[in-house]
Design goal:
With 160 residues, the chain is α/β, with parallel strands linked by helices. The chain contains five helices and eight strands; from the N terminus they run E-H-E-E-E-E-H-E-E-E-H-H-H. Strands 1-4-3-2 form a four-stranded mixed beta sheet. The longest helix is centred in the middle third of the chain and has 13 residues. It starts with 6 loop residues before the first strand and ends with a helix.
Length: 160
């Protein structure tokens, strides 16, 4: 059987800490196996956390404690689909805290460098297929936002 799952490289030995953070804050998330580095792995201390298997919102993920040479960036992100403004605010605050950073159009980075898109279902509904003037107005409003503002999306959509 063939499977696919993301494999994320964490610098500064943060894979297990990131997995525990997601398990604490994202529903249907958990930490699985934490494998220790065997003797002789370049850049890894023997017996230190090395590979971490975890789940984020039901999706299996592998985290690797990697050196500083490779860093996570926006080319990969978790798309966190949420219900309404309260959940946008809740997850945005959690993910941008303690060294995380806000970004444009619903994107942010957590303190581990992982990019997230915190997207309310209303955004998908209001933007639809980007084929009507109302959908395009909602999309254009979103393009000017950092954290998504559901009320502003609805106003742009309804005002088109």
């Amino acid at each position: 059987m063939v499977t696919v799952r993301p494999h994320l490289w964490f610098g500064n030995d943060k894979a297990a800490e990131a997995a525990a953070f997601y398990a604490e804050h994202i529903p249907d998330s958990s930490v699985g196996k934490v494998l220790k580095a065997p003797e002789g792995v370049p850049g890894a201390q023997s017996g230190a956390d090395f590979v971490v298997e975890f789940t984020v919102a039901g999706m299996p993920v592998i985290g690797l404690n990697a050196g500083p040479e490779l860093n996570l960036d926006e080319a990969f992100s978790f798309y966190l689909l949420v219900e309404g403004q309260d959940e946008v605010d809740h997850y945005w605050d959690i993910l941008t805290a303690d060294g995380g950073a806000p970004g444009p159009c619903g994107w942010c980075k957590d303190k581990f460098g992982v990019s997230w898109q915190v997207i309310p279902k209303e955004l998908e509904e209001l933007c639809g297929t980007y084929s009507t003037s109302a959908e395009i107005a909602a999309m254009n409003a979103m393009l000017k936002m950092g954290k998504i503002d559901v009320a502003a999306l609805k106003a742009a959509h309804d005002g088109a």
